């Protein structure tokens, strides 16, 4: 059988479908910020950015660009009506104080107990970058990870134990990859959705820890976005 | 009469010398004191400790600080340059010229806030179970393991705001504020470059930082995108 892995935008689309009306959500750098484009119509989701914004709107058009209005990824942004701006300390009071419902973060590796590694991949000659990741992983009510299912050379990113330095232990609730949607449970990884045409054996071969399957395991699909 | 206006960059950085700790406001370019960073890079001051969310911005606007090896220690949540090529600071981190206290951004912000509020240290669960917590005192509160994080203070803070008045009251535009208010409070000498020093005094509702935290203000144009 053949299968077509989801694109980055499709992973973002899929992750965005799980954001519910009224949620306060922080989107990490890279793939997660793409979710802002795919939030389902009719749901009010407030996006928080850790440089001190609640109510991040779409990325600014050329006409809207204002160098003093950025998000934590240094993108020039717009604000939605009702948005607020506050200090970094207040922003992390929001994050560390448990006021963020969901954070969507990129990941290098996730372990079957929910350990997350996403800040230091030991790249030679490159310095470390934590940013807000440790605070978000520790402080958000739910931590959801978006990543390719394997590394470029095909190594597993879903593991029994992380190889890279941890961002936070036992923090991940759900993982969206280009091949599957997987929950982290007390029993380990549980697949909720698997890509059409991909066999369970093939998915297991691309994973470094045992996968279980939800009784109602569904098909992972996304529109061409 | 209270008047915190200074006439030029020399006066703005007067007293800044060897071995001092300097904080830098700014996030994503907003609130970054580009004029003051360039003026600092032109001074001879060495053996400096810098406290800046990202090291990259300092390197972008004050490369001489690194080229001349005048920064010995950095406290930051990000010390990675863009792209795959190493920046000067990354080369210096690797060869030991520069030491780094890498901090989760929330701990970084709170250490500065604590420093300005006279709180010497605090406990937080952030970073427990990671190498960042190694060597730090651990203690459990309400069933949650925490690490002790110590406050940060500085000799100078260099930051940018949109408007100021002669009291040193500050008004920020957009996301200029970020670490600024807390760095201002945490410093013995906070110097702020602003687009406009207003006639008279700012209206109360526009004051984001009370002037008590600010020592010197200087009016300088926004040079970004120029």
Helix and strand topology:
The complex is a heterodimer of chains A (225) and B (226).
Chain A: H1 8-17, E1 24-27, E2 46-49, E3 53-59, E4 77-85, H2 88-96, E5 102-106, E6 109-111, E7 116-117, H3 133-139, E8 142-146, E9 158-159, E10 174-176, E11 180-185, E12 188-195, H4 200-205, E13 211-220
Parallel strand pairs in A: 1-2, 1-5, 5-8, 6-9, 8-10, 12-13
Antiparallel strand pairs in A: 2-3, 3-4, 6-7, 10-11, 11-12
Chain B: H1 9-12, E1 21-24, H2 34-41, E2 48-52, H3 55-61, H4 63-67, E3 71-76, H5 88-95, E4 99-102, H6 105-117, E5 121-124, E6 138-141, E7 144-150, E8 154-164, E9 170-171, H7 180-185, E10 187-197, E11 216-219
Parallel strand pairs in B: 1-2, 1-8, 2-3, 3-4, 8-10, 10-11
Antiparallel strand pairs in B: 5-7, 6-7, 8-9
Which percent range describes the beta-strand content of chain B?
A: 25-35%
CATH architecture of chain A: 3-Layer(aba) Sandwich
Give the % helix of chain B: 10-25%
What's the Cα radius of gyration of chain A? 17 Å
| Helix-strand category of chain B | alpha/beta
CATH topology of chain B: Glutaconate Coenzyme A-transferase
- Largest β sheet strand count, sense and barrel closure of chain A: 10 strands, mixed
CATH architecture of chain B: 3-Layer(aba) Sandwich
Cross-sheet strand order for the largest sheet of chain A: 4-3-2-1-5-8-10-11-12-13
Helix segment count of chain A?
Answer: 4
Number of domains of chain B: 1
Strand content of chain A: 25-35%
Q: In total, how many beta strands of chain A?
A: 13
What is the CATH superfamily of chain B?
Answer: Glutaconate Coenzyme A-transferase
Q: Would you kindly provide a brief summary of this structure?
A:
The complex is a heterodimer of chains A (225) and B (226). Chain A has 225 residues and is an alpha/beta fold. Chain A is built from 4 helices and 13 strands.
